[in-house]
Design goal:
309 residues, mainly alpha, two-stranded antiparallel sheet, 13 helices, elongated
Length: 309
């Protein structure tokens, strides 16, 4: 519904504030007129030449169909964000804000990211000032994770505020909290579980390949002799695909010997020995880079892994 007509006094006040006082749009005050109405009237006066060039405004460049098509492909097919598209210059002449607005109008972008942006905590000026005082005072040495949990923010947001205020935590301060140690243990446990799952899948795939190879060798007349793994009891063949081969050179010649356990069991024992060594090193406080002497390590590895004739 259209509003009331502009009166002569209102137009004179608008011209005076724009030409003589050089006020920007947020500071222009016309009683009974909204900011949108003031902006529209200012544009009309600018096009009519009343403002004498005091207000240049900006030219709005409409979006073209090829640009919309490319934007749809960038967001839906490749999953690019507005900041990435603007940073890489994929749509020349378009800023990050204009790309973001157009994505919002057409429902483009990741729904999870848009929902997270809607639920984000946004401070008003008073709340922001209170939060900054907290960071400079009581929360100066608190971990960013604890501050984020207390104020309902993301940890990255707290870190950004600290960077702006010049009160970043030092390396030692950031890692001396219980929250950081708890997160480290959580990440370590997740990494161990992921590694063990990958090892389990690799073992299953390897065993399927071995079974196919065993069936192929069983049908050949020149197959190598059978050899039983002393760890798992599976019967394989005396070949380097199934058992680790050791070569000894002596004046009498070259002698090859096979490990008593198959490669799968040998790898499993090596993983167990490595885990025990890492645990012992962690409890003793020694550095991870300290290694035993080569000869001692080789003898202990062969004894643990069951290598021999």
């Amino acid at each position: 519904m259209p509003g009331s007509r502009w009166t002569a006094s209102q137009l004179e006040s608008l011209v005076d504030q724009v030409i003589h006082l050089s006020k920007p749009l947020p500071e222009i005050d016309i009683p009974g007129k909204t900011r949108a109405a003031i902006n529209n009237q200012r544009k009309r006066l600018q096009r009519a030449g009343v403002l004498n060039g005091s207000f240049a405004g900006r030219d709005v460049k409409p979006w073209t169909f090829p640009e919309l098509k490319r934007l749809t492909a960038f967001t839906q097919d490749y999953g690019f964000s507005a900041s990435f598209i603007a940073q890489m210059g994929l749509l020349p002449g378009r800023t990050k804000d204009s790309i973001s607005k157009m994505m919002g109008r057409h429902g483009l972008g990741d729904p999870a990211i848009k929902e997270r942006a809607r639920q984000a905590c946004r401070f008003d000026p008073l709340r922001r000032e209170e939060f900054q005082r907290f960071l400079l005072g009581e929360g100066r040495l608190l971990p960013s994770m604890a501050v984020a949990r207390q104020w309902g923010l993301a940890q990255k947001t707290v870190t950004a505020y600290r960077r702006r205020l010049g009160i970043q935590l030092s390396w030692r301060e950031a890692r001396s909290s219980d929250d950081f140690r708890r997160q480290q243990r959580k990440r370590a446990a997740a990494f161990i579980a992921h590694t063990r799952e990958r090892w389990k899948q690799w073992r299953e795939r390897k065993k399927l390949l071995w079974e196919k190879l065993r069936q192929q060798l069983a049908q050949r007349s020149d197959s190598p002799p059978a050899r039983v793994c002393q760890a798992c009891g599976e019967q394989w063949y005396a070949a380097h695909e199934f058992f680790h081969v050791r070569t000894r050179r002596s004046p009498a010649g070259v002698q090859n010997s096979y490990c008593r356990i198959c490669r799968l069991c040998r790898a499993e024992r090596r993983r167990g020995a490595s885990a025990l060594a890492c645990g012992a090193g962690a409890h003793s406080g020694k550095g991870a880079g300290v290694q035993p002497r080569p000869n001692t390590a080789r003898r202990s590895a062969c004894a643990t892994q069951g290598c021999g004739d």
